[in-house]
Amino acid sequence: QKEVEQNSGPLSVPEGAIASLNCTYSDRGSQSFFWYRQYSGKSPELIMFIYSNGDKEDGRFTAQLNKASQYVSLLIRDSQPSDSATYLCAVNLPLYGGATNKLIFGTGTLLAVQP
Amino acid sequence: DGGITQSPKYLFRKEGQNVTLSCEQNLNHDAMYWYRQDPGQGLRLIYYSQIVNDFQKGDIAEGYSVSREKKESFPLTVTSAQKNPTAFYLCASSMESNQPQHFGDGTRLSIL
Lengths: 115, 112
Known about the structure:
heterodimer, A: mainly beta, 6-stranded mixed β-sheet, globular, B: mainly beta, 7-stranded mixed β-sheet
């Protein structure tokens, strides 16, 4: 089982719709969860992070975390063509009894927002 | 402006040659990381460093080496032992290892 799994897509949504991106993870000890946006040929850009169960909203973006189900999602409201990119989910993996951590990245979901 | 600077943007390696990728940050972050990204794949961790003069191997360290002599700098050397070096190399930094990581613009390495 992969440590962080995402549907590769493409996920196609019409402009103005809500895009829902999902991610599951395998390590129950993970405490920090991150969403990055990566445009083609560019480096990843942090857009959201969440540490606690529930929802966290920032503008058009909402991150949702359910640790019991080992599931984290990203909702993008009022999707715009400029949101078309690959969205990477990243989950921290505690190492050495929690003395340090490393991030495990999913392979990303390609989002296409149709005008 | 605070940020992470990677250079060069594009790099070509000849057979048997070692090449060094530069990564400098002025965010005063303690932790720095090197990742490799291949088409259609996620980011894979090469090396990471939590403090100056200390670094750890990641998941794919073979054929690579690093140093961390200054807090601001974490250069990556791709040695001739790395037989498939063509990839997009990303440097990142964070305040601590469980905090958000911020990325540089990356270096694209190709074989001549």
